[in-house]
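Entry 14. Ran structure prediction on the chain below.
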Amino acid sequence: MLDYDAEADRYDETRGGVPRARAAAEAVLRLVPPGARTLLDLACGTGLVTERLTRPDLRVYGADAASGMAHRAVRRVPGGIVLADARRLPLPDASVDAVSAVWLLHLVPFTAAIVAEAARVLRPGGVLIVTVDKDAAHDVGSDIDAVLASHRSYEASTDRADLVAAHAAAHGLEPAGATRFTGHGQGNTPRGTVEKLRRGYFASWFEGSPETAAALAAGLGALPDQDRPRDDPEYRLVAYRRPVRRD
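Output, structure tokens:
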């Protein structure tokens, strides 16, 4: 897993910057219920998405486990950022109307624990909004994807839509809609994909040997237009709602 304290300084510029953050925030807000008054953005990173989760009467907070990320986020969301593990939130039961987790569940082996904690802090009628199948979204059918295809598998992905749905159901959350948004600036280049392969970005789908990695790098290096981005990915957001009990 990447060192997100070390990544904080360059995180925004290497992840699509404002265009991608704006698209993500707009998509999250499409799934937040009209009457919601509080939203907690888990793994908020530098706060680039969090500060754009703006709507009249909606108070937004962010939480991140990396101090380097949280330090930057607090500049964007003053008074609204807490340093916290998504599995142990410093909040009482049933205390927020919405929880968002954009680009988080694919990174961790404890998806079930995060969903459980989000369910705990949601009020009745509140929603959990998460990205699913994140790595699979980067397979856009390009020549890069053709090189990687035989070594690509998403069976071990911790943000697979079916797994997340099962975790949500186990904690009493019901499906409450879905939407998509474009990952602006995230189209892969052959040269950039080789660099990511070497740095371990693809750990969730690639478990090959160093020899296999070298062969993939050679195949990618033979592609034309080494620095031309291929199509941007399209990410999927799903929402799960805590039902309102009617006695």
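The radius of gyration is 18 Å. Will compare against last week's run tomorrow.
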